[in-house]
Amino acid sequence: MAARRKIIRIDEEKCTGCGECVPNCPEGALRIIDGKARLVSDLFCDGLGACIGHCPEGAISIEEREAVPYDERKVMENIVRQGPNTIRAHLDHLREHGADEYHRQALEYLKEKGIEVPPERSAREDRLPCGCPGTAVRDLSDRHEHERQAPASAPRRSRLRNWPVQLALVPPGAPYFRNADLLIAADCVPFAFAAFHEEFLTGKVLLIGCPKLDDAELYRQKLARIFAQNEIRSVTCVHMEVPCCYGLVEIVKAALAESGKEIPFSEITIGVKGEKLAETAAR
Q1: Cα(242)–Cα(205) distance, integer angstroms
Q2: Which H or E run contains 216?
Q3: 92 and 178 housed in the same domain
Q4: Got the DSSP string for 34-48?
Q5: Which CATH number belongs to the domain containing residue 107 in this structure?
Q6: Element at 108 (helix H, strand E)
Q7: Are residues 64 and 169 in the same domain?
Q8: Is the omega angle on the peptide bond into residue 133 within 30 degrees of 0, that is, cis?
Q9: How far is the C-alpha of 250 from the C-alpha of 256, rounded, in Å?
Q10: How far apart are CA 222 and CA 255, in angstroms?
Q11: Is residue 248 within 8 Å of 237, Cβ to Cβ?
């Protein structure tokens, strides 16, 4: 059975352009353009509907679609129909979120169709349209290339390749998920295991969360979309030995099953004293 994803739908007949939905979209995927609310990026809509309760006209709903890999050309077909201002907003949104490859594909599509590329806003590398600089998507992998041959005596450096890392904040279509080896860690692990960066994080894209304190269902849905929409090469789940932390493993397994993908999965258990207790090979 094909995996499904949820995404918002805007009824333009009902929408008055009041803008109440925009600040309540945590992904920054909504903007008011030409007097109407527009979803400027399918890529970053998490489908959880945080914006719905803030629409006084009932113009926003959730619809289900098959979770097929993101296709920028198909998205552009819809974006172009909404006019040059929406095209510009979409291009700005991709650039601001670091989706460089999709931005290139969008420009290529416009060129092929003979559509004028609207001028883009000046770069705002630190901030999303929602105003929160802490959620800006960043691919940090390039900065690690020079460290591959670093001597053992060199000072320790961060091996982090992506931002954000908190699972609730990461958009499923973030560009760094393409062909990624994914590390899903309980958020206590990096504090307990001293060599977390060197032993676990090197070369991997990181997601963190707490299966006890956070929304497990949200995590399952988000992970299922990440697995379904991207070519993930492997998944490693590292968690603490305490019973509640094993819930993270079950969340990841359930998401893998829902996605319908066969992705190599391995599991690592860390003790509260900071030692590695168990490790299962990818299977």
Answers
A1: 24
A2: helix 216-229
A3: no
A4: TTEEEE--GGG--SS
A5: 3.30.70.20
A6: helix 100-112
A7: no
A8: no
A9: 10
A10: 8
A11: yes
44 falls within a domain: yes
- Over residues 176-196, the pLDDT tens digits come to 998 999 999 999 999 999 999
Does the predicted TM-score (pTM) go above 0.70? no
Q: CA 69, CA 87: separation in Å to the nearest integer? A: 21
Digit-coded pLDDT (tens) for 248-273: 999 999 999 999 999 999 999 999 99
Angle, helices 72-81 vs 84-96, to 10°: value is: 140
> Are 163 and 83 in the same domain?
no
Closest CA to 120 of 100, 84, 91: 91
- Phi, psi (rounded to 5 degrees) for 138: -140, 135
End-to-end CA distance of the chain: 21
Instruction: Please check whether residue 119 lies inside any domain of the structure.
Output: no
Token pair in block for residue 47: 């489908």
Tokens of 268: 């690592």
Q: What is the span of the domain harbouring residue 57? A: 4-112
Q: Are residues 194 and 269 in the same domain?
A: yes
